Amino acid sequence: MTRFHSNSASVFLGLLIFLGCRQPADHPPARLQLKVLFAASYCRPGGRTPSALWFENLQQAKAALGRGKIPARLSPKRGLLFISMGRQPSGGFAISLARPTAELKNDTAIVDVIWHNPPPDSMVTQAITFPCLLLEMEKADFHTITVRDQEGHIRARASTEKNL
Fold first, then answer.
1. What pTM, to 2 d.p., does this model score?
2. CA 72 to CA 39: how far, in whole Å?
3. Is cis: bond before 45, omega within 30 of 0?
4. Largest Cα–Cα separation, the chain
5. In Å, how far are 4, 41, 45, 72, 144 from 67, measured between CA atoms?
6. Mean pLDDT of all residues belonging to the chain
C-alpha cells in the first residue's frame, strides 16, 4: 500500500511540475491609452533622421521642446512621447496615430503610426519640414518605446531612461 502512495505522490508531483512549467495561454497584449496633443509639419527639435523622445513629466518636455504645445497639466500616471520624422525636403510629409492604444509586449511599448509621404508627382510646398507628433501616453512597466509604421517598419525608438 505504501508503494501505491509513493507512486501516486510521484505522479502528482510530476503533474504539478509539468503544469507549473507550461507556457501560459496566449493572452492578448496589454494596451496603453494614447492621446494626440498635436501634430505639425514644422517642429523643433527636428534632427536629420526620425527620432522619438520619452518625457516622464512636463518639466522634461518643456526643457527639450519649449513651452509651445506642451499641456499645462499632466497626470503623474502619464508621460509624453514626441515623434519626429526628421528633416524632410518638402511639404506633404506627416505622421498620424494609427490606433489610440499602444501594445505592451515584455518591456516594450509599441506605438503604431501612419507615416505619410507625398505621392511622387504631387504639388507640395518647397520648404524643408520637420513633421512631428506629440502624444500623451499611460505610464507602465516598459523600458523602450518602438514607433512602427503602417508597413511594419520600425521608424524610431525611445528609451524611458531619464531625459535631461
1. 0.79
2. 17
3. yes
4. 90
5. 76, 17, 12, 9, 25
6. 84
